[in-house]
Structures are given as structure tokens and as C-alpha cells.
Amino acid sequence: MSPTRRDVLKWAAGAGGLAAATTLGLPSTATAASWSARSWMGQLSNSLPVTGLTIPGTHNTCANSGWPAAKCQDWDLGTQLGNGIRFLDIRLNGLQGSANEMGLYHAAFFMNKRFADVLNDCDYFLRNNPKEVIIMRVKNENSGGQALDAEEFRRRFNWHLDDPSMHFRPRFFTGDSWPTLGQARGKIVLLTDFDHTWTVLKWDTHCIIQDDYNVSDDEKRKAIVRCFDAAWSDRTTSKMFINFTSTAKGPVPEPSIGAQKIFPSVYAYLEPRKTQRARFGIVPMDFPNYRPDIMKLLIDKNFV
């Protein structure tokens, strides 16, 4: 079996709101030519469920530095948000030297950013764009020397939300069903991918996910199309479709190479369907700056 990217990164580090199914509303309140990347959600109806949207996102959002096998982005977080990204894939371990803080990691590699920095960036963006919504997957990366067990991860996460020096909890939407845009405007919708018993949105429970990354290019293309087709045809599910375009296959896989191979087939699927009403859910990408035309097609889908 070929090593996964996580295996390679481990070696390198060692070396050095709907409660029940209803018919989904689909956005049709503005023209595709009229939106701004910084504030595109503000032009959509408050009554729309966020599951009825097409939302560009990033895989390993803060992995924008370091070794090529660990780097998944060129844009920093603020640039991503300003360019229309609204789903963030936030992966955390403990922050070395701190009893309470967490840092952003790709496997065991520290991405030179604290979780507090991420929350500050999101807070700043939402204060300046109060009609926007950010969906944030928070994952316990659980890798390397700064790995945290489940109890400690929960404690540190709550510390970031409640410590008087931070107090970010009011910025979060923490319901246990997907909200409408009106319910979530100006909020970070918390999507948890770590062990807990809280009554909040959960990665494996509230989402339909395609994340086949350690497969051949052809298999990945087919998986993306299957997920797009499923999202297109299913207008009743209360779950969020999440269709990762990111891939990393090979002895020393590089996300940048995978993105260049996969993006043409994503464009080939979306472009002929650009005038047809549909929702595709969240589409997390590596290096979305490589293909701004795909970013535009995804956001445009909300205005057909």
C-alpha cells in the first residue's frame, strides 16, 4: 500500500438549520454578475438554509507555509475570506509552550498560526461584513509531539471561547441543526470533528462527505462527480454535502500538483451547468487561487 500524505508528514516531522428533511429552497435573489467576493452572501435571502447553497472552501485552510507536501494554500486566511471562501478546515494540536492555547497543524507540522489568530481573523472579517457566514470545521489533528487527548482538546477549545481575554463564544452559532442564512449572519457556524457529547453540529452526523484523497487521479475525478450529482439530485436532505477536490497520491505527494491535475475536471463539470439551478454544498479546495474561474462558477451558482 502506498503511504498517505499524513504518513509522509509524520516521517518528515520525525526526521526534522433543519431538524427534519424538507424541500430545500434554492437561491435566486440576485444576478450572477452582481455579487462581490467579500460580501456575496449578503445578497441572498435570510430564509435560505445554508445547506441550500454552493460554498467555496479550503482544505487545510491554514497550511500556507512549509514543506511542499504540507502546504495546501497560497492565500492566508484573510485573503481567503476576502476572495469568497466561506468554509474553513481548521486542524489543531496543542501550542508548544502554552498550557491553554492551540496551534494550526498539518499532521505534525506547525503552520505558524495560533487558533486565537484564526478567531481574530474571522471576528475582524465578520465585524466588517456582518451579513456573511463562516462555516468552520474544527478537527483534533492528534498528531506529533503536541497531540492532545479528547478531554484536553475540549478544555482548550472552551478556553478559547470563554477566556476573558478572548471571549469568542458569542461569535459562534452552536446549534445542532443547520441554520438559515438569517440565523447565522455574522456568525461562525461550528462544525465539530472531535470527541464530545455536546449538542452541536457534528462532522460525521450532519454531513455527506467525499474526501477520497489517497486514490488515483481518475478515481478522484469520479468521486467528485458522484458527489456533485448526488447534491444536484437530492433536494430533501437536511445534511450538508461536502465535496473535497484535494488529493495527494504518491510516494511524496504534493497538494499543489494534485490541484493542477484535478481542477480541469471540476471546471468541466461546472461550466456547462452554470445556468442550471442547483446546490452543491461545500467544495473545499487546495490552492483555489490557481483557478479563479472555478471560484466564480461556485459562487455564481447561488444566483442562478
Task: Name some characteristics of this structure.
TIM Barrel, seven-stranded mixed sheet, 11 strands, single chain, alpha/beta, 304 residues, 8 helices, globular
Q: What is the fold's blueprint, element by element?
A:
Blueprint (H helix, E strand, L loop, with lengths): L4 H11 L38 E5 L18 H6 L4 E8 L7 E5 L2 E6 H14 L5 E7 L9 H13 L9 E2 L7 H4 L3 E6 L7 E2 L4 E4 L6 H17 L6 E4 L11 H16 L10 E5 L6 H9 L4
Parallel strand pairs: 1-11, 2-5, 5-7, 6-7, 7-8, 9-10
Antiparallel strand pairs: 2-3, 3-4
Give a summary of the structure in a few sentences.
With 304 residues, this protein is an alpha/beta fold. The protein is built from eight helices and eleven strands.
